[in-house]
Amino acid sequence: MGAGHDHQAAVTNAGHRYRGRLWAALLLLAVFTVVQTVAAFGTGSLALLSDAGHMFTDVLGIGMALAAITATRRVAADPQRTFGLYRLEVLAALANAVLLSGVAVYVLIEAVRRLGEPPEVLTGPMLGVAVLGLLANVVAFGLLRKGAQESINLRGAYLEVLADLLGSLGVIGAALVIMTTGWWWVDPLVAVGIGVFILPRTWRLARAALRILVQAAPEHLQVTEVHDRLSAVPGVAEVHDLHLWTLTSGMEVASAHLTMTPDAEVGPVLSAARTALREDFHIEHATLQIEPGASPGACGAVEW
Prior knowledge:
With about 300 residues, the chain is an alpha+beta fold. It has helices at about 1-15, 20-45, 45-75, 85-115, 125-145, 150-180, 185-215, 225-230, 265-280; strands at about 235-250, 250-260, 285-290, 300-304. InterPro entries: Cation_efflux, Cation_efflux_CTD, Cation_efflux_CTD_sf, Cation_efflux_TM, Cation_efflux_TMD_sf, CDF/SLC30A. It comes from Micromonospora yangpuensis.
């Protein structure tokens, strides 16, 4: 039982450890969102506007990540919430993906409209603001990079910042091309490139979040392999009602009924099954119900 609770604590603490970094990234990107938005309308650059819109979703994404972390901490001691509010993290990641997809679609539509008659843009201010935006994204990227390895919520914000960083590079490139060649079409073309770059990554994030919400088995775990491994545990005659799902990022959960052979003992069977799940599949939290074969006294349900 202790291993499961230790793992839950580790998942909960993952967001709290990076709370200060999230706040720093939020404030930094919020300031530059305003700067880029004003500059985009002032210069007439769609590429810069798309980058500003993308940065705005970064701010919203990080804000939702912070809200999910705060809510999880507040309900940790509520006995009616036996799993806390771990799913808020997943909901925040899904909302990030939806917002970012909306921005990408808008930019693509507007870019196609402008390709027929691209307006002139003020390349000097466009370039200067794009460089500042790039620097802001580099700092935010560094703040979120480590936490993205531990939390799907932080990963969503991290991916948005990564995409925005590359988008800033595209805006810088567009400004330089316009300054040297006068080719105004590059501005909407770069905006299209940013939109095309954003969409596949947001869809993958949304797909990962939806898999968790519908309680599908984790992609990296094969249900048949887990079934066969539990069936191979000494003293197990049959495995049924096996379920695998992800509660939140980094926390896989399993439940199963194990029918024992007549001569098996509950303790050794549970210990071996627990070891198999932990060592072979990294599943720390499981509920296993033991069903006796011909041994009526060997019955029970154990959770760890």
